[in-house]
Each structure stands twice: as structure tokens, then as C-alpha cells.
Amino acid sequence: MLIFECPYCGVHAEESELSPGGEAHLKRFGPGSDDADFESYLFIRENPKGVHFERWRHSNGCGKWFHAARCTMTLEVFGTYVAQTFEPPQDLKEKITAKRPGWSWRDFS
Amino acid sequence: MSDPVTAMETLRFEGFVTVSQAGSLGMITLRGDFGSKPFGTALKKALGLDPPQKRQIAHGNNSTAAWMSPDELLIFCSWEDKATLMTALQKVIGKRHAMVIDVSDARMTFTLTGSNVREVIAKLAPVDLSPGSFEPGELRRTRFGQIAAAFWLVSQDEAKVICFRSVGDYMFKQLKAASTPGSELDIWT
Ligand SMILES: [Zn+2]
Fold first, then answer.
1. In the predicted model, what is the mean pLDDT of chain B?
2. What's the ipTM?
3. Measured distance CA(A4)–CA(A57) in Å, rounded
4. Contact status of B69 with chain A (Cβ, < 8 Å)
5. Residue of A nearest to B151 (CA)
6. A interface toward B at CB cutoff 8 Å?
7. Subunit contact A60:B142, Cβ cutoff 8 A
8. Which ranges of chain A have pLDDT less than 70?
9. Measured CA angle at B139 (ends B134, B145), to 5 deg
10. For the whole model, what pTM was predicted?
11. Which residues of A touch B148 (CB under 8 A)?
């Protein structure tokens, strides 16, 4: 059971109050993009063992989308942050480094 | 003009708490940047209240405003007052990027009364209802069983629960089941 703190309403929401939204920080490639970019946007995902970044929605709550960082192996939650950003906040990255030295995820580390 | 009636006016169940359907209540959804100073001032003018803080409920002259999300308030008033209030809100909002909608017909309200109201809610919603963790003054949006709902405590032995009226029957049935005599947990009493 995951518990995320919603960065908008501050509720410590249990998983059943949330809806998963897949991987975080995907860049959309639409019509006119080249095939490799479009394929990666649609199909290529990280699927890591360890540190992972995801989108979640507080659907049975304030209704807002947010980001979450967690460990796929232990289900440890490192933190949550707002949706209006292209990358995890620095303090969260530092917190993850303290717990999982040497971690990396796409271009983040 | 016809009188307003709710979908299931006579719903009532006497369990270890009493579950009853509350009468028609005016509800207005306001969306916009109410946290900003000019918007807050405008709201105060229309409602006589300062916009509520995160998850809190603020009381005005003849209305109550509950925090639903960073850009959404739910305003409660009597059925008779809602038209006047809608007009007043629209007037102070003016050209601001905002939305005021009468959602009174969209929802159903239940009143729970009895010393174990916390228990009935705790059986259905994934919320910590222990005294101290949840107290009157806060509105919590969550789920009850499988449906979205919101609730607040009026006092230690009275709670209000709102949900969409399309799922009102499901809500009543699960509130009834959760308050069936003999199923008391007595954890907080
Ligand atoms: Zn939330």
C-alpha cells in the first residue's frame, strides 16, 4: 500500500484515493515528429528496479495531478512534487541520493 | 413555482448512528484563483467571509465556503439564498477568469448523528478519523466505498456527507450497512 502526500491539498492519500498516471516527465512527440521520437513517446519506458518517477492524480480528493518519486523494489516513497515542472526539485534529488547513492533515472541523478 | 425536492426525500435509517437525508441545500461551485488578494477581497464583499485555508471551512453571513482544491471552493447556502448569492458572486468576479456554477441539483447530502459517527465514516473512507486527527472545521474530499464523496464534522456527534445524487442510493445503502446495530467497533468511545 502506497501513501503519497498530495502537494496541493496536503492530504496523506492512501493509494485507493489516487489514480496512477504512468511514467513522469514524458515529452510529447506528435504529428510531424520523426518515427523514433514518436515511438519512444508512445512505447519506450524506463521500468527500473529502484528509483522511479511517476504521475499520480488525487482523483478521489482535490482532483489534481502531481509527481511522485518512489522505489519500485521496496515501495519506499521519497517524496511528491507539483505537476508544473519538467524535473524533480533539487532537494528531492538530494534526498534520494542520501538513500540510494549513485541512482540515476533518464537524465536525472 | 414548484417546490424543490430531493431524489429520495424520506431516506432515514436508525442504526447505532442515525443516517438521514438532509433537505435541499444550495451549493455553488466557484473556480478561480481565490487565493490571490484582489479575488479574496471580492469574495469577502460578496459572501462576507475570507477564503478558507487549505481543506478548511469558512463561515460568512448567510453562506459557508469550503476549500475543495487550490482553485475551487464549494459554497453552501440555503436553497432560497442561492440565486441572490450567484448574482452577487458573478458581479464581484466581473471579468476575472473564474467560474460560478449552481451545483445544488448535482449532489445529495446525508446527515449522520450519534456518538459513533467517526466510526461509520472510518469504515467506508480511507481517512484517519481519530479525535485530534480529524476535527470540525475541515472538509475532506475522499471516497466512500467506491464513490467519490466529501464529509465534515459539524460536531463530535454529527457529520455531513455529500456525494453525487446519481450514486446517492449506493451511498445510503453503505451508510446503512456501516451503522447496522451490532457492528459498533467502539474504538473511540
Ligand atoms: Zn490533493
1. 93
2. 0.89
3. 10
4. yes
5. A61
6. 8-11, 13-14, 16-17, 59-64
7. yes
8. none
9. 85
10. 0.92
11. 59-60
At B61, the pLDDT band (50, 70, 90 cuts) reads confident
Domain range annotation of chain B:
12-23+106-178, 25-105
- If pLDDT is split at 50, 70 and 90, which confidence band does B2 have? low
The pLDDT-based confidence of B6 (bands split at 50, 70, 90) is low
CA of B159 to the centre of ligand 1 (A): 21
The partner residues of A4 in beta bridges, in order of sequence, read: A13
Phi, psi of A94, rounded to the nearest 5 degrees = -65, -40
Gap between the terminal Cα atoms of chain B: 47
In whole angstroms, give the CA distance from residue B185 to residue B122: 10
B43 HSE (CA, 13 A, CB side) = 29
From the options 3.20.20.370, 3.30.1360.120, 3.40.630.30, 2.40.50.140, give the CATH code of B12-23+106-178.
Answer: 3.30.1360.120
For residue B187, report the phi and psi dihedrals to the nearest 5 degrees: -80, -25
Question: Is residue B7 pLDDT above 80, yes or no?
Answer: no
According to DSSP, the β-strands at B63-69 and B139-144 are unpaired
Quick one: how far is CA B53 from the chain centroid? 16
* Domains identified in chain A and CATH numbers: 3-99 (3.30.2270.10)
pLDDT of amino acid A1: 84
> 3.50.50.60, 3.30.70.1520, 3.30.310.50, 3.30.465.10: which CATH number matches B25-105?
3.30.70.1520
Task: Say whether B141 and A62 touch across the interface (CB within 8 A).
Answer: yes
Question: What residue type is A16 in one-letter code?
Answer: S
